[in-house]
């Protein structure tokens, strides 16, 4: 087991309170809950879940770093793709789960620099702490644009424009499924004293069972199926009147996701920049994620009537969209800035960093121009 930092007494008390709440939920449900419910409580329980509290999550002082935190090149390059799409859609951008707000600030700054500002930039954020951070950062970075930015409490009934979700799908609850020669089981959570333990039961959810039976999994495989991802993509697809849904996250197509060599699934936890595999460690203090099954994203969107406009790696998307051109705008003789941006570009695009594991997928309707971000490096055959 990886040695993990010891939390402060205050953080420990917070985690203990959430732990007690989850134990109560298990008792109310007859001694067992689905892992998806455990993950939902650990991440989103009001006032206690990881994304519902004021602990620092992003950056060096937090638990993980996202692409917008690494470099403004990410948001500025994304803006170049949006400029190409916006004449085909309403001048309206929606961002799901906007993190610190840095992506919104970078996108809006680049769009303003090129004279292509949207009429509205909406943010749907479930974390009160992150919403507060976003408001403070955007008032500081783009105070003159704050009237264009609106925070939503729920998905709008209809969407026309572009919706961005960067590292959102990986944080949605997943069900854990175990395939054996005899049965397909669901791995859930039970109580043993003050601890949580794994316990498997026959899979009873009809939709989950249907999906699990479609997977050619070897005996002994344990992996994730996300009904929540499918539900969100369905809701967004049904609301989309015209425009694009753009998802950026780490993951694979289903054949790679459920490859026989990946027998223990993809579930991981992030705590103070340590990555480990124990979701029961300090609930409320760590992030719990799984990789995204992009085949499920594409199929769900297309079942709802959308078109697949592109699927590629983050590296290909950023290079196609013009990240190198943005770097070239910095004078190489300005050695400090140029080398810093070059290092940031490397992290965003290198196969050893974020370039290959992270993917970009675009689905939508009524967009009749080729998308520059998917000009080369098409990976749709892997879906």
TrEMBL record:
Keyword Transferase: yes
Keyword Methyltransferase: yes
Any GO BP: methylation
Alphabetized SUPFAM superfamilies for the sequence: S-adenosyl-L-methionine-dependent methyltransferases (SSF53335)
InterPro entries named in the record: NDUFAF7, NDUFAF7_sf, SAM-dependent_MTases_sf
Single annotated GO MF: protein-arginine omega-N symmetric methyltransferase activity
Keywords for the protein's UniProt record, in alphabetical order: Methyltransferase, Transferase
UniProt-recorded name of the protein: SAM-dependent methyltransferase
Organism of provenance: Candidatus Nitrotoga fabula
């Amino acid at each position: 087991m990886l040695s993990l930092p010891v939390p402060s007494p205050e953080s420990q008390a917070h985690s203990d309170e959430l732990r007690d709440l989850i134990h109560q939920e298990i008792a109310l449900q007859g001694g067992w809950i689905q892992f998806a419910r455990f993950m939902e409580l650990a991440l989103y329980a009001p006032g206690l879940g990881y994304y519902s509290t004021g602990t620092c999550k992003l950056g060096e002082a937090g638990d993980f770093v996202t692409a917008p935190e690494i470099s403004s090149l990410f948001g500025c390059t994304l803006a170049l793709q949006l400029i190409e799409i916006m004449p085909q859609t309403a001048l309206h951008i929606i961002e799901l789960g906007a993190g610190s707000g840095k992506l919104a600030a970078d996108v809006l700054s680049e769009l303003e620099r090129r004279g292509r500002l949207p009429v509205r930039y909406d943010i749907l954020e479930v974390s009160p702490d992150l919403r507060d951070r976003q408001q403070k950062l955007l008032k500081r970075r783009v105070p003159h644009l704050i009237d264009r930015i609106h925070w939503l409490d729920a998905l709008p009934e209809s969407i026309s424009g572009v919706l961005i979700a960067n590292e959102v799908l990986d944080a949605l609850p997943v069900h854990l499924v175990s395939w054996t020669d005899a049965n397909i089981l669901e791995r859930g959570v039970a109580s043993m004293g003050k601890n949580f333990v794994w316990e498997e039961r026959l899979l009873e959810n009809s939709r989950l069972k249907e999906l699990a039976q479609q997977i050619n999994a070897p005996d002994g495989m344990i992996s994730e199926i996300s009904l929540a991802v499918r539900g969100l993509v369905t809701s967004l697809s049904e609301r989309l009147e015209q425009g694009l849904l753009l998802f950026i996250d780490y993951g694979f197509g289903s054949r790679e996701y459920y490859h026989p060599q990946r027998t223990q699934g993809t579930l991981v936890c992030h705590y103070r920049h340590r990555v480990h595999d124990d979701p029961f460690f300090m609930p409320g203090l760590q992030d719990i994620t799984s990789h995204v099954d992009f085949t499920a994203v594409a199929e769900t969107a297309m079942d709802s009537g959308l078109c697949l406009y592109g699927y590629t790696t983050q590296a290909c998307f950023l290079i196609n969209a013009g990240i190198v051109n943005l770097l070239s705008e910095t004078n190489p003789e300005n050695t400090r800035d140029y080398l810093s941006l070059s290092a940031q570009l490397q992290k965003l695009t290198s196969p050893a960093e974020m370039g290959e594991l992270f993917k970009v997928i675009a689905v939508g309707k009524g967009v009749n121009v080729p998308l520059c971000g998917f000009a080369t490096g098409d990976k749709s055959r892997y879906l």
